[in-house]
Amino acid sequence: MAYPIRQFDPQTIFFITSRTIQSRFLMAPSDKTNELIGGILARAVRQCQVELFAYVFTSNHFHAMVRAPSPVAMSRFMQRLQSNIAVKVGRFVGWRGRFFARRYSAEPIVDEGAQVERLDYILSHGVKEGLVSRCQQWPGLSCAKALLEGGRASVHHWRNWTTRWKMEVDEDVNVDRFSEACPSEMETLELAPLPCWAAFTAQERSRLVAQLVAGIDAGAPNATAGDTKHITEQDPHGSPIKTKHTPRPKAHASTKQLWVEAVRRYGDFVAAFRRASREWLLGVFEVEFPLHSFRPPPWGVQARIV
Hints:
Distance between the termini: 25 Å
Radius of gyration: 21 Å
Number of helices: 8
Helix content: 25-40%
Largest sheet: 4 strands, antiparallel
């Protein structure tokens, strides 16, 4: 089945989802895994200048709410995030080969109500599955603590394997990639406030997040789940007995009418893109593509961004 055609409007927040190959627990939470992913995420956000509103990393998938200034910025952000996780976390857990199952999904979040609903969905991970009884018990990398503190910036270690390699070559020093001796750099991760809450103070946003968290905790299906060893001691090469596979949503909206309008707009975009693509591939390079799209490469010519 063909991949959906991307349209990254710089004014739109996208809900990102990516799952590991065969849903294996390759990102099972641990101090080292959290350190590696935290540094990778913070560095990718800074280098690509994207806005990160919320995120959560579970054992076999992650979610994020992201807005990028251009399609190129979004593409580079996801490339750096996923490729570095695949290389660094993959080596740490002893996994060779493909790390993520398929291309990440990115659906537009249409309105303010949907922004809060998606944030609530991210915060509820671990609790809604009955793995933990409270949001803050989740041992993996999550935005819950930072948001409860008003969006306070967090500091993470980026392990610089390039510098480590130069040390081995120039100084003939063997440095373990995951030891404290490995060269590292400090990266600061700052969360952007949701646009629907941008006018509020940090204390007011913290109070709103606390209300969401209280509601999630109150509805926990397993109120006695206190020990997280069953999560942190998972075999990274293992996989769940049963996984949920659902079609990718076309958009996230708080009402059916807004969802239908978003789907219709995307349908018009796809139709315009395909018309332009047919002419482009015939050699009519003056054809206009819809905004925020990726032009297809003609006969091996590198793709360009509109």
